[in-house]
Amino acid sequence: xxxxxxxxxxxxxxxxxxxxxxxxxxxxxxxxxxxxxxxxxxxxxxxxxxxxxxxxxxxxxxxxxxxxxxxxxxxxxxxxxxxxxxxxxxxxxxxxxxxxxxxxxxxxxxxxxxxxxxxxxxxxxxxxxxxxxxxxxxxxxxxxxxxxxxxxxxxxxxxxxxxxxxxxxxxxxxxxxxxxxxxxxxxxxxxxxxxxxxxxxxxxxxxxxxxxxxxxxxxxxxxxxxxxxxxxxxxxxxxxxxxxxxxxxxxxxxxxxxxxxxxxxxxxxxxxxxxxxxxxxxxxxxxxxxxxxxxxxxxxxxxxxxxxxxxxxxxxxxxxxxxxxxxxxxxxxxxxxxxxxxxxxxxxxxxxxxxxxxxxxxxxxxxxxxxxxxxxxxxxxxxxxxxxxxxxxxxxxxxxxxxxxxxxxxxxxxxxxxxxxxxxxxxxxxxxxxxxxxxxxxxxxxxxxxxxxxxxxxxxxxxxxxxxxxxxxxxxxxxxxxxxxxxxxxxxxxxxxxxxxxxxxxxxxxxxxxxxxxxxxxxx
Length: 524
What we know:
The protein is α/β, with parallel strands linked by helices and about 525 residues long. It has helices at about 5-20, 25-30, 40-50, 70-80, 95-105, 140-155, 165-175, 200-205, 265-270, 305-310, 315-320, 365-370, 375-380, 390-395, 445-455, 460-470, 470-480, 490-495, and strands at about 60-65, 85-90, 110, 125-130, 180-190, 210-215, 230-235, 245-255, 260-265, 295-300, 310, 325-330, 340, 355-360, 410, 415, 425-430, 440-445, 480, 485-490.
């Protein structure tokens, strides 16, 4: 039931939000993780909280990163004044905090201009609703990170990993502020459900709370206009999980009217690395199929440090009179590679329209200067800004590239579902001597498979077809997703993907995985 005046105040708050956002650059807001919650989403979250709390339970509300007060405004709109016993918010940035305090000064909100992560806990709140700052770990300085890890461990009993974003610490620290059986709803990036640093967050949710519901928004439906991030709302109570507990997973639509849903036993979640596979996929039994890791070592392509400087066309090499022996072919970006089967000329150079070459010289600078004066002059152009970049300054010499030999099988690193090809990721059969940049993953055959490939012409094509029979759902289920529907596969994630039958091939040291005529003795 909405109270008189709440709609007008929300309009004032929205106007204030726009004004304050305009007073900061996008870069400044990104560094502090300041992405305002849309009004409709805030109302949806508070309406869900009202339905989840007891019907007459007094509400003691806490928002540890209140901003201009989107959730507090929604609280006042959804709950009658008689039920709001207390409301507290923290805001570290006075640019937002002071105007918000003025806006809400006569409403009973205790708005504290302070860093929530340094405040002493007050276990007095039964409703915590928060959109915490989305600050990536590299913006959290090391000394501050150690302090946060120690404080989080004291608050909830779990040590947060060093690669975690600031939002993970907010979630952990708030545990000490909640009443027993209190309800929390967190609007956070869904990436914690899949990435390594998210393991400790998931452990906290499973072992120290009763995890009720995770709603994941469709990645194609970005919730924040100014942040390309896939979002989820995580609901839990501060209470030990009951025996045999199951968690509700929903996807798409809204919290109250999702497009898809499934109940997943907490016991399954404890052993499942990729929570974003739910609710679309059923809890899976460990596959009897081998994985890509049984046959290949998966490596990410090389990072040059500056593609414009280190990757040149034949015309650019000729124009600068640079030595061709210091270059090796490299595949272009996937969007410039129309074919998934790369043939080569007698020199191993790909027979494709866009031929590119990687400058890869390992000679000392003095020898380059003596033997290749044109190349030395080219290096001088990059010896300042480019040589000082992170990757280059950690190499010796600074212009030497990572060791990435040509791989006979290559997979794209990023992809989108619903493309014209019908597949988010592409497996490429590479018969050339071209290496790859970090927009690809290289699949290097393990020794037993390399032996079979060397002895049996045509096996590479059969394996390529097998890789292409891996379903999009299997690939997406091991990867991760970002706002806008962009999917990514890291090397270990691709390595975990099950593969269909490769007749008679045997993982090193193992028994034949399948009975087949083709290479039943491949491991002998």
